[in-house]
Amino acid sequence: MKREFAVIGLGRFGGSICEELSREGMKVLAVDSNESKVNEFKSIATHAVIADSTDEQTLKDIGVKNVDHVIVAIGENIQASILTTVILVDMGVGNITVKAQNDYHEKILHKIGAHHIVHPERDMGRRLAHSLISSNILDYLELSEDYSMVEVRAGMKMIGKSLIELNIRAKFGCNVVAIKQGKDINVSPLADDQIKTNDILIIIGADKNISKFEKIYVID
Ligand code: ATP
Questions:
Q1: Domain enclosing residue 16, as ranges
Q2: What does the pLDDT look like over 94-146, one tens digit per residue?
Q3: 5 in ligand 1 pocket by Cβ < 6 Å?
Q4: CATH code, domain carrying 26
Q5: Which of 96, 118, 128, 131 is the most exposed place for a label (fewest CB within 10 A)?
Q6: CB neighbour burial string for 182-209, b if at least 16 within 10 angstroms, e if fewer
Q7: Rounded-to-integer distance, Cα 160 and Cα 51, Å
Q8: What pLDDT shows up at residue 44?
Q9: Is residue 87 pLDDT above 90, yes or no?
Q10: Ligand 1 atom closest to Cα of residue 101
Q11: 205: CA distance to ligand 1 center in Å?
């Protein structure tokens, strides 16, 4: 069965969510208070409507309550984002994801009952910063406030050594969860698996431990 989504706010972030969900064949209700934005999405989303999401009755009238997941992608106008979220929580929408503009906004969204909160600009900034530190750091994903996952190209000091020789878990408290070699991916590497040139390691750990590991093994 097709899942139904509503995207409120069709800026760059909400707009790209709307496009991607539609491309994946999902039913999408696109909502924005700006008529020209709505017109842009008429041919992309299943339905595109002009509406002010801070008006409870309007949200009810357009049927937001019946969708599986609502994404609130209003950024700049924090007050509108908060008010919209309160209304959606009150209406009993099962899944509400909200884009937070800053940490203060995030705290309020938590308090009022948003189910998922995303910080696309902050997360992208962090990912970019990590990739700038070394060309061997290929990706960085925050798992929680203190834990992350990184994708790194094996540094010179790692090549030819087995995981047990590198002893990453004992030395740094990080876990190598997968090793990629070209298109092949080894998702449960063994202690005596050897690291080869161009291997890409996917590692999970506390941020401070990942930093230590990167300094020793990744940043040449
Ligand atoms: P971007 O995703 O482009 O970075 P942003 O974070 O700057 O966006 P805004 O441009 O403030 O966010 O808002 C995104 C969209 O939300 C805009 O198209 C705006 O018209 C729409 N919007 C703002 N307030 C409301 C509202 N109360 N009801 C419906 N749509 C709204």
A1: 4-118
A2: 999 999 999 899 999 999 999 999 999 888 888 888 878 778 889 888 888 78
A3: no
A4: 3.40.50.720
A5: 128
A6: eeeeeeebeeeeebeeebbbbbbbbbeb
A7: 60
A8: 96
A9: yes
A10: 6
A11: 35
Question: Of 149, 9, 17, which Cα lies nearest the Cα of 83?
Answer: 9
Q: What is the residue type of 156?
A: M
- CA–CA separation, 172 and 170 (whole Å): 6
Q: Are residues 62 and 136 in the same domain?
A: no
Ligand 1 lined by 18 (C-beta under 6 Å) = no
- Residue 220: its pLDDT value, please? 63
Q: Which atom of ligand 1 is nearest to the CA of 14?
A: 2
Q: Residue 80 in contact with residue 74, Cβ under 8 Å? A: yes
The CATH number given to whatever domain includes residue 185 is 3.30.70.1450
Among 118, 146, 168, identify where a domain stops.
Answer: 118
186 lines ligand 1 (CB under 6 A): no
Pick the residue whose CA is nearest to atom 5 on ligand 1. Answer: 75
Instruction: Tell me if 3 sits within 8 A of 24, measured CB to CB.
Output: no
Q: Which amino acid is at 25?
A: G
Domain count across the chain: 2
On whether the CB atoms of residues 102 and 73 are closer than 8 A, the answer is no
80 plus 103 within the same structural domain: yes
**Shared domain check, 114 and 87:** yes
Same domain membership, residue 212 and residue 132: yes
State the pTM of this model: 0.79
For atom 10 of ligand 1, the residue with the nearest CA is: 11
- Based on the fold, state whether residues 132 and 104 are members of the same structural domain: no
The 3-state DSSP class for residue 70 equals: strand
* 85 and 135 fall within a common domain: no
